[in-house]
Amino acid sequence: MSRRRSFTPARLRRAMNWWPPYLFSGVRVLEIADDWSSARVRLRLGLFNRNYVGTHFGGSLFAMSDPFWMLLTMNSLGRDYVVWDKAGEIEFVAPGRGDVFAEFKLTEDQLEEIRRETADGGRALPWFGCEIVGEDGAVVARVRKQLYVRRKQPKVPDSTEG
Question: CA-CA distance, 136 to 51, in Å (whole number)?
Fold first, then answer.
């Protein structure tokens, strides 16, 4: 069994909260749904993630959202798919001056579209987005991520074996 598939959502959440890049930057994974359909993350404003003017460092805002679309998609689709991050972008809307939150929701419609696009062996390049919001609900940043998804190719036996 591959390492990434041995994690339940609860185990992955705990592991990510102890992962040094998240632990020391103030990122906390609050929830990963049991069916891999959603995740919630918080970033506290602290000494190690504030910029020169005292607001959230942009890299920390992007990092808090970086792995979740890939993790939710790969675990929802299962072992028959290859899922990689392809591109990402962030739009800074307002300064983050306190705790900020991001929520990721993966729908069955999105998964079905990926399955349709990859059914013939092709690839899918879906975009996913979320907003990073402050405690008051005001938008601090908008993040978009593009994934590369394709079905795994069946292994062909080597004719020299046997």
Answer: 21
CA dist 122 to 79, 119, 147, Å?
A: 17, 7, 14
Q: What is the pTM of this model?
A: 0.88
Asked if residue 130 lies in contact with residue 124, where contact means CB atoms within 8 angstroms, the answer is no
Outline where 68-154 has alpha helix (H): 68-77, 108-118
Percent of the chain's residues with pLDDT above 70: 91
- 143 burial class (0-12, 13-18, 19+ CB within 10 angstroms)? buried
For residues 102 and 104, give the distance between their C-alpha atoms in angstroms, rounded to a whole number: 7
Sorted by where each starts, the structural domains of the chain and their CATH numbers stand as 3-151 (3.10.129.10)
User: CA 70, CA 85: separation in Å to the nearest integer?
Assistant: 6
Q: Running DSSP on this structure, what letter comes out for residue 132?
A: E
Read off the pLDDT of each residue in 101-123 and give the average, rounded to a whole number: 97
Q: Which residue has tokens 């300064």?
A: 95
Query: For residue range 11-28, what is the model confidence (pLDDT) as tens digits?
Result: 999 999 999 989 888 999
List the structure tokens of 55.
Answer: 């607001």
Q: How far is CA 119 from CA 30, 65, 125, in A?
A: 34, 28, 14
